[in-house]
Design brief:
Keywords: Membrane, Transmembrane, Transmembrane helix. By secondary structure, the protein is mainly α. The chain has 10 helices and 4 strands, in the order ααααααααββαββα. Strand 3 and strand 4 form a beta hairpin.
């Protein structure tokens, strides 16, 4: 079978190793499904138990409050539908950068994102969701089988022989059971809770995904966003609590299963999406993978010669300039050589070392994580311009359209000089020789 040379809706060629890297993601998902089937067929370890232990004498609930198929609909189908509907139809409707129709001059309702942008976001969103669930199921079932902890309703499942008593000294084992073998087998899979882990994996993932799309950590404190993000977490908690109500799991099983699922959901989200604290990225998926380039350092990094000051991002020069009692840092001194690279110490600035801006996209300047130029070593960067605030002597941050910058092509001497001469009140687009 021949590998495709381009992505859908794209004319740019992709290297085979890029295609292979994403194929491996799906191979891992298939391997997880196969691993779950294998582990589920294995007879779990049977721990010894006491017939006098009242914590395993609960009645067996024939009808569960939330069966596994319902739990999968809540933690799997609902997030999947939300990702598809949002990325294909809702994403960009409320954008302030909608492209205008050339004939009528009106803004397009769909927003700035093209179909290939939406398909890329949907691909990454679904891939992360499937990864969270697949890894969670495999880990949960492996732990269940290895531990073999009795469920709270084990005695009712076991149906001990008449006259059975605990050994003295010692405990009873599964050889005294006369009940349904399938029920007995499942009765030794109490820890951790599968309902809890799967529900928290899927719903924590979709809560993070939704929080990124709503850029919930954008320091504006809009409570309705927090409410929307908390709804999946509430649903996951209710699913987990139902397992205690049905006497299927002990509280410890539910708590640890929930923690396992939440960890898997978080890790899966971060494989494809930026952290919520970087709200200016607006939850857009990472660009297409590249090789042969150094990892991008943290934003707001100051590079002077061979010395990188990693504490620059922890400072706030604006607050220091407004407060005369604070000592002036050496980083605020005005003398810098043209060869020094300096980005303002704010969370919206980008590392400008070894980067060169690229032309805006022809569809209105809206950036996308599926942009073709990313395959040639370009990554997204949000420019950070400052505008003078009337009536005040200091500057206030203003957003500016993002652009792509290359991490693989070094800057020329003239561009290095232009980068250094661009001041806080002057955006990079105003510097001669810098076409954005």
């Amino acid at each position: 079978m021949e590998l495709p040379k381009t992505l859908p809706f794209s004319k740019r060629r992709l290297r085979p190793r890029v295609i292979i890297s994403y194929i491996f993601d799906y191979v891992i998902l298939v391997a997880c499904v196969a691993g779950f089937a294998i582990v589920d067929s294995v007879e779990p370890y049977h721990q010894h138990f006491s017939l006098q232990n009242i914590s395993i004498q609960y009645p067996y609930a024939v009808h569960e409050r939330i069966p596994m198929q319902y739990a999968l609909c809540i933690s799997g189908a609902f997030p999947l539908v939300l990702i598809v509907v949002y990325t294909l139809f809702i994403d960009g409707i409320f954008s302030h950068n909608k492209p205008q129709d050339a004939a009528s001059g009106k803004r397009k309702l769909r927003g700035p994102h093209r179909w290939k942008d939406r398909l890329w976001e949907m691909n990454c969103g679904i891939l992360g969701l499937l990864l969270a669930q697949a890894v969670t199921f495999v880990m949960t079932q492996a732990l269940k089988t290895a531990c073999g902890k009795p469920r709270p309703d084990l005695i009712d499942r076991c149906q001990p022989r008449e006259g059975s008593v605990d050994l003295f000294p010692g405990l009873s084992n599964s050889t005294i059971c006369t009940g349904d073998p399938a029920l007995i087998k499942d009765g030794f899979r109490s820890w951790p809770s599968g309902h809890s882990s799967s529900s928290f994996a899927g719903l924590v993932y979709i809560a993070l995904w939704l929080g990124g799309k709503l850029h919930i950590m954008d320091n504006r404190g809009e409570a309705w966003k927090a409410v929307l993000v908390m709804i999946p977490l509430l649903a996951a908690t209710l699913v987990a609590v139902s397992r205690i109500m049905d006497a299927r799991h002990h509280p410890f099983d539910v708590i640890t299963g929930s923690m396992l699922g939440a960890a898997c959901g978080f890790v899966a989200y971060r494989q494809y999406f930026p952290p919520l604290t970087e709200a200016w990225r607006k939850g857009r998926a990472y660009p297409i993978r590249t090789w042969g380039t150094d990892p991008a350092g943290p934003d707001s990094v100051r590079l002077m010669g061979n010395k990188i000051d990693s504490s620059t991002a922890l400072r706030n020069p604006e607050a220091e300039r407004m407060n005369p009692d604070l000592p002036v840092s050496e980083h605020d001194q005005p003398h810098h050589a043209p060869s020094d690279y300096l980005t303002e110490s704010n969370p919206y600035a980008s590392n400008m070392y070894n980067r060169r801006p690229h032309d805006h996209d022809v569809d209105g300047g809206a950036w996308s994580s599926s942009e073709d130029d990313v395959t040639n070593g370009y990554e997204m960067r949000h420019n950070y311009a400052r505008a003078q605030n009337p009536g005040a002597s200091h500057s206030l941050p203003q957003y500016e359209n993002p652009s792509y910058v290359s991490q693989t092509q070094p800057l020329t001497g003239a561009e290095m000089h232009s980068e250094a001469m661009a001041g806080p009140g002057r955006p990079l687009t105003d510097v001669p020789g810098r076409a954005m």
